[in-house]
């Protein structure tokens, strides 16, 4: 590797020398340069991949330790996601020959952290994070808005996935709003999540699929409420009881209706995202203010989370919007404080 960098420098030096020396001597050097240009071309891919993203370990360099740390520090109220997701990713990525793609289905209310966790994953698997060419995000209402165009979408999606996988087998596919996908669209994706070493000319087994949906969030919230009501910590809810609940009940809606995904065990992990409590939203507000270089006092934090809606009606302990919109409310409160200050 080092030697090819030296080669490239030599080449540049020679090329510049050659251009500058407009005399017969340059003819001699010219011949040498021609030979060297060939070798420069050989180094081209190498050089290109130093600057631009390529499907090589330098760019796909997973950092699961960092992923765990970030989840511990700034991802609130989701003990089951915390237990499951980093381990599943570590196991998948450290396996040279996985038998199938890693498929995880994230379920829960808006703002409970499904998108946030997807971003944390992308940021700790790819150097360029969520902006990586190898991270493909499909949003139901953006990419597939018209239910009647199913067959067009199926063809499109298949050719995208094939294209993406042939560009890089270590691709990450994130399907957002899965419950709003046209039913049966995911059947197109199914063979890519199966145990095939080759499908449409690509090997899908090293990739990762994430499905994000609200499906099952009622059941998840109900379970969280039952624990809360009984005075039991939510952290004692087990993955097993939630997986049973989710794999049975959550799939009467939209894209997940295609029961084959579930009955054929294509999904490796069902991950529930619980509705956040006020204390979790306070932490999100604190983190946001920190990004704005503001050390928050508890009065300010209370004022911010007070602006958000909570449920159930008779004992509103859960945030209806989770950590979403916390930034907007915080901006509002900061603005208000500033105005008050101006009035003094
Ligand atoms: C791993 O992730 C952590 C947390 O995001 C980050 O601080 C650290 O720099 C990362 N390490 C490497 C080698 O990229
Ligand atoms: C990969 O997927 C994206 C959608 O995320 C699509 O726009 C792109 O064309 C695909 N790439 C290839 C090479 O097919």
Automatic annotation (TrEMBL):
<dbReference type="InterPro" id="IPR049337">
    <property type="entry name" value="TOR1A_C"/>
</dbReference>
<comment type="similarity">
    <text>Belongs to the ClpA/ClpB family. Torsin subfamily.</text>
</comment>
<keyword id="KW-0547">Nucleotide-binding</keyword>
<protein>
    <recommendedName>
        <fullName>Torsin-1A C-terminal domain-containing protein</fullName>
    </recommendedName>
</protein>
<dbReference type="InterPro" id="IPR010448">
    <property type="entry name" value="Torsin"/>
</dbReference>
<dbReference type="GO" id="GO:0016887">
    <property type="term" value="F:ATP hydrolysis activity"/>
</dbReference>
<dbReference type="Pfam" id="PF21376">
    <property type="entry name" value="TOR1A_C"/>
</dbReference>
<keyword id="KW-0732">Signal</keyword>
<dbReference type="GO" id="GO:0005788">
    <property type="term" value="C:endoplasmic reticulum lumen"/>
</dbReference>
<feature type="signal peptide">
    <location>
        <begin position="1"/>
        <end position="22"/>
    </location>
</feature>
<keyword id="KW-0067">ATP-binding</keyword>
<dbReference type="GO" id="GO:0071218">
    <property type="term" value="P:cellular response to misfolded protein"/>
</dbReference>
<dbReference type="InterPro" id="IPR027417">
    <property type="entry name" value="P-loop_NTPase"/>
</dbReference>
<dbReference type="Pfam" id="PF06309">
    <property type="entry name" value="Torsin"/>
</dbReference>
<keyword id="KW-0325">Glycoprotein</keyword>
<keyword id="KW-0256">Endoplasmic reticulum</keyword>
<feature type="domain" description="Torsin-1A C-terminal">
    <location>
        <begin position="276"/>
        <end position="331"/>
    </location>
</feature>
<dbReference type="GO" id="GO:0005524">
    <property type="term" value="F:ATP binding"/>
</dbReference>
């Amino acid at each position: 590797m080092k030697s090819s960098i030296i080669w490239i420098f030599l080449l540049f030096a020679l090329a510049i020398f050659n251009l500058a020396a407009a005399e017969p001597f340059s003819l001699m050097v010219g011949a040498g340069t021609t030979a060297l240009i060939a070798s420069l071309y050989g180094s081209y891919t190498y050089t290109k991949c130093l600057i631009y993203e390529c499907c090589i370990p330098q760019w796909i360099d997973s950092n699961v330790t960092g992923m765990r740390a970030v989840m511990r520090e700034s991802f609130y109220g989701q003990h089951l996601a915390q237990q499951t997701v980093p381990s599943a990713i570590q196991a998948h990525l450290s396996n040279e020959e996985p038998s199938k793609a890693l498929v995880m289905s994230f379920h829960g209310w808006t703002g409970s952290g499904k998108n946030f966790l997807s971003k944390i994953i992308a940021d700790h698997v790819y150097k360029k994070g969520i902006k990586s060419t190898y991270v493909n995000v499909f949003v139901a209402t953006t990419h597939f808005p018209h239910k009647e165009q199913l067959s067009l979408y199926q063809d499109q999606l298949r050719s995208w996935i094939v294209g993406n996988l042939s560009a890089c087998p270590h691709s990450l596919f994130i399907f957002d709003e899965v419950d709003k996908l046209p039913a049966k669209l995911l059947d197109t994706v199914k063979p890519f999540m199966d145990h095939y070493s080759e499908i449409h000319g690509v090997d899908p087994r090293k990739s990762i699929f994430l499905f994000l949906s609200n499906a099952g969030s009622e059941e998840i919230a109900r379970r969280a409420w039952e624990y809360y009501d009984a005075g039991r910590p939510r952290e004692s809810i087990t993955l097993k009881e939630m997986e049973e609940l989710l794999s049975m009940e959550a799939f009467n809606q939209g894209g997940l209706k295609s029961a084959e995904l579930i009955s054929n065990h294509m999904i490796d992990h069902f991950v529930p995202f619980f509705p956040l409590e006020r204390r979790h939203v306070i932490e999100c507000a604190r983190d946001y203010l920190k990004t704005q270089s503001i050390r928050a006092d508890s009065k300010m934090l209370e004022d911010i989370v007070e602006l958000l809606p909570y449920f159930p009606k008779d004992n509103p302990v859960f945030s209806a919007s989770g950590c979403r919109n916390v930034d907007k409310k915080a901006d509002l409160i900061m603005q208000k404080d500033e105005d008050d200050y101006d009035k003094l």
